[in-house]
Design goal:
Blueprint (H helix, E strand, L loop, with lengths): L57 E2 L5 E2 L10 H11 L2 E3 L53 E9 L7 E9 L11 E9 L4 E7 L3 H9 L7 E3 L2 E4 L3 E2 L6 E5 L2 E6 L2 E6 L6 E4 L29 E3 L4 E8 L8 E7 L6 E6 L15 E3 L3 E6 L22 E8 L9 E3 L1 E6 L2 E6 L7 E8 L39 E7 L4 E9 L7 E5 L11 E6 L9 H6 L21 E6 L4 E7 L4 E10 L9 E9 L11 E6 L9 E4 L8 E7 L13 H4 L1 H5 L3 H11 L5
Parallel strand pairs: 18-22
Antiparallel strand pairs: 1-2, 3-27, 4-7, 4-35, 5-6, 5-36, 6-7, 8-9, 9-10, 11-12, 12-13, 13-14, 15-16, 16-17, 17-18, 19-20, 20-21, 21-23, 24-25, 25-26, 26-27, 28-29, 29-30, 30-31, 32-33, 33-34, 34-35
Helix pairs in contact: 2-6
Bound molecules: fe (ii) ion.
Fe (ii) ion binds next to loops.
């Protein structure tokens, strides 16, 4: 089977400015990562032997990408090159405004010479499964584990060392959005003959309050994206991401302050910033209680060069409150510093949807209003109408030098970037004030939407699968990977390069790269996309995107055969997908984490540790949920190793980090939790005061 790739031109040219688009945003928001779309049931091919995926490629019995019908066997150098060629697709740059597709011939040139000491051999990826979304993605055991992972197939690389961390939400199992759940951290310890795994719940103060109030009038309940108690306030489930601060480690959440953990025990040690140092994002009138909701963004940035942590704290427009957008800076020891972000006329740089990520370069901060659109009412009314995100991304550019001690505001430049999304990063270097932004778009997708009990599929009107309630809705279009050059001083967009791939870029979700901090100039960024399947596109969301302005695939032409998720390396210099691995049917791959090979320094000299979730129970010693390890220099050949344990039961895992070594926390920073809640409890009932005194404070001595 030969591959045919659609190529089009998406050169937007120079000089677009903040005036390019007018504001047409609505809603406010919270976060979720992109959608784990795997493969479809009724809309799929039915799986079976051969596991046909789509017109763009086939999977052999081992699940390796076979980019062309006559390709050599998986792992074979020829097969790898073919797969790379197959995964290359629609890329255009400023120099090729009339791109005709011919540059895809360059893809094969991107094949790297195989180093002599490259890892060899790949794992058997298991049986061919049905092309359907695994139901286990919305289920996970709550047990905290201390287990030894076993090698199921392949070999554990001997130069894979250090500690890989992964975080996830534990689904409540009641159809609630699956990323609204208690955080659970996983740590894999490499370097020995076996791989110990430790998992622990993210036990924030509200975690204890939640469990202690179960069954009482103060009990928490799920309301779509939030979990709240009518009297106690809102949960900070700390389930989304890590921020590594050298030998320290934070866990984060979009709707709450970060918390610091001990990397050895995974115990929550302290919040970052006192309650009084964070502004409440929803008035107490609407969400009362001592556990205030403070929207913060799940991806603060730690600058290893300066020792500064940058975060945000914002509130969207809600009746009875004034919207605010603040930058928060922390030195890891003292009080938080804070600046309100305003535009040149003094108006607030208002966030209309939500902020999930902050970008930091040497001289600039970039805040982005991202595509998690949630009607404010959804915080309060579980079945409030859905709201389509803005199709454009509003960003605010702030000069770091303008964050001056003693001032309370900082002025930002506003810029609109066509197409929406949530995850982006910046080159750390910004020569001559030019910012390079790398953006995984979620065109036509709202990662804050999930399968609800009254939802029907968009393709056939059938009820959505009852065993997938809570699952994220998939995209309504193929998605774009973007690289942008921005004049940081003028706040203008100078150059745009977009690439999309009709196989690989359906819902790019989570990325990784070498280093815990961004490099001076990115060369490679690894992404995992979650694919497309009609069984995860609800009529509710389909209708929201009926008039999506940047559509590449007409709604009527969306694939009828599922698109598998793909692990791929984006060469951000050439803006080509240089290497890719198609996830076998019936499986969801997520949470890639780059782990450098011991003693190596290259951006591809490492491994990608990923989670893999399936419903397959046929492989001895596997629960169906596993960790797969890839050679970062050769994804196409498939995983080198599969790790598993019968007790491992993963849900949808989110973000990750890696530490070369871990040690007992020695930092002295600590918010006294009893003092922290004193003001909030002062007006509460004795019952609530007693609950905190007996069930929360003893855990934070
Ligand atoms: Fe994220």
């Amino acid at each position: 089977m030969s591959k045919i790739h659609r190529r089009d031109v998406l050169k937007l040219g120079a000089g677009l400015s903040g005036a390019f688009l007018v504001e047409n945003l609505s809603g406010c928001g919270n976060q979720t990562p992109a959608d784990p779309g795997a493969v479809g049931g009724a809309g799929g091919t039915g799986g079976g032997a051969g596991g046909l995926v789509d017109a763009g490629g086939t999977l052999d019995a081992s699940g390796m990408i076979d980019g062309a019908a006559d390709a050599a066997s998986p792992g074979d150098a020829g097969a790898t090159a073919d797969a790379r060629d197959a995964s290359d697709a629609t890329s255009e740059t400023a120099s090729k405004p009339d791109g005709d597709g011919s540059s895809s011939d360059d893809a094969g040139k991107d094949t790297d010479a195989k180093p002599e000491d490259a890892p060899t051999g790949t794992a058997d990826t298991g049986p061919t499964l049905m092309t359907r979304t695994p139901a286990s993605i919305v289920k996970a055991r709550r047990d905290e584990l201390d287990i030894e992972l076993r090698v199921l197939s392949g070999r554990l690389p001997t130069d894979l060392t250090g500690h890989a961390f992964m975080i996830a939400a534990l689904p409540w199992g009641d159809g609630t959005l699956m990323v609204n759940g208690d955080g659970i951290m996983y740590r894999l310890d490499f370097g020995g003959a076996t791989v110990p795994l430790k998992s622990r719940h993210a036990k924030t103060p509200c975690y204890y309050a939640d469990h202690a109030s179960t069954g009482t009038a103060n009990a928490f309940k799920n309301a779509g994206l939030v979990r709240f108690s009518p009297t106690l306030g809102t949960r900070n489930e700390a389930n989304t991401a890590f921020v590594r601060m050298k030998d320290r480690l934070l866990i984060t959440f979009d709707a709450g302050r970060p918390h610091e953990i001990d990397p050895t025990t995974l115990d929550v040690v302290t919040p970052v910033g006192a309650v009084s140092e964070w502004k409440r994002s929803i008035p107490e009138l609407f969400l009362p209680g001592p556990l205030a909701i403070s929207m913060s963004g799940a991806h603060p940035f730690f600058d290893e060069n300066t020792g500064e942590l940058f975060a945000v704290n914002y509130g969207t427009a809600i009746p009875g409150s004034v919207p605010f957008t603040d930058i928060v800076r922390w030195d890891g020891q003292g009080k938080l510093e804070r600046w309100s972000v305003v535009l040149s006329g003094g108006a607030t740089a208002e966030i209309k949807q939500s902020m999930h990520q902050i970008g930091v370069s040497q001289d600039y901060l970039v805040l982005m209003d991202c595509a998690f659109a949630i009607a404010p009412l959804q915080f309060l009314i579980p079945n409030a109408p859905s709201v389509a995100p803005s199709p454009d991304s509003v960003i605010y550019i702030v000069k770091r030098a303008d964050l001056k001690a003693g001032s309370t505001t900082v002025t930002a430049k506003k810029l609109v970037i066509p197409r929406e999304g949530a995850h982006f990063t910046l080159d750390y270097e910004n020569p001559s004030g030019l910012i390079t932004m790398h953006f995984g778009h979620n065109d036509g997708a709202d990662p804050a939407e999930w399968l609800r009990i009254d939802d029907v599929r968009s393709d056939n009107g059938a009820a959505v699968r009852s065993d997938l309630l809570g699952m994220l809705v998939t995209t309504s279009d193929v998605n774009s990977m973007g690289r942008y050059t921005i004049d940081g001083e003028a706040g203008t967009l100078l150059d745009t390069t977009l690439v999309h791939d009709m196989d690989a870029t359906w819902l790019p979700a989570i990325y990784t790269h070498r280093g815990s901090m961004t490099p001076g100039r990115f060369e490679d960024i690894y992404w995992v996309s979650l694919g497309y399947t009609a069984e995860l596109l609800t009529k509710r969301v389909y209708d929201l995107y009926a008039n999506y302005p940047y559509r590449k695939v007409p709604l009527a032409s969306l694939p009828t055969t599922p698109k598998q998720g793909t692990l791929f390396r984006l060469d951000v210099v050439t803006m080509k997908i240089a290497d890719a691995y198609r996830v076998p049917a019936g499986r969801i791959l997520s949470s890639p984490q780059f782990v450098p090979r011991a003693g190596k320094t290259g951006t591809r000299e490492g491994y990608l540790v990923c989670s893999m979730v399936s419903d397959d129970l046929s492989w001895p010693s596997s629960s169906g949920d596993e960790f797969w390890i890839f050679d970062a220099a050769n994804l196409a050949q498939g995983p080198l190793c599969r790790l598993a344990h019968p007790d491992l039961d993963l849900g949808f895992t989110l973000h990750t980090t890696w530490m070369d070594a871990i040690a007992k926390r020695t930092a002295t920073y600590r918010i006294p939790v009893r003092d922290d809640f004193a003001a909030g409890l002062a007006t509460q009932t004795q019952e609530i005061k007693t609950l905190f005194e007996n069930e929360v404070f003893p855990h934070f001595p």
